[in-house]
Amino acid sequence: MGNLRNKELNNNEIYDENNGLYYTKVGDYYYPNIVINDEEKITLGKYGRARLQYLKSHKRGLWSELIMTEELTKHLKDVDDNATNKVKNIINNLAKKDNFPIYYDGIIDQLEWVKTMNNYKNIAEELVYNELIYC
Which residues contact 121 (CB under 8 A, 6 or more apart)? Predict the structure, then answer.
């Protein structure tokens, strides 16, 4: 800690006036007394996890900033919720536009219904990934 302006609180703890941190001596070294706040435990869905992976791989600066400001969890939850809702809305709109049942009702061929719904889902996910995840 050299010639920094420090106040010794006791023989194992000091306060550094330059940065406003308290340090505890362990052996020959002083370690800052830094505590990370507990965040709300959330379960991320498919889109939140995809966004996290994208931030870690391609947007390291934004990822670091969100961690340091403790906004990462909130950001990922918002992206996951928005993406899930947007996929549902797009699927519903495509089905309504084509006058296609959203739930299987037995009137049409089951494989045809599954094929069409998977097609709607792929379209919706491609839009959501480009607009919300990979941006």
Answer: 87, 91
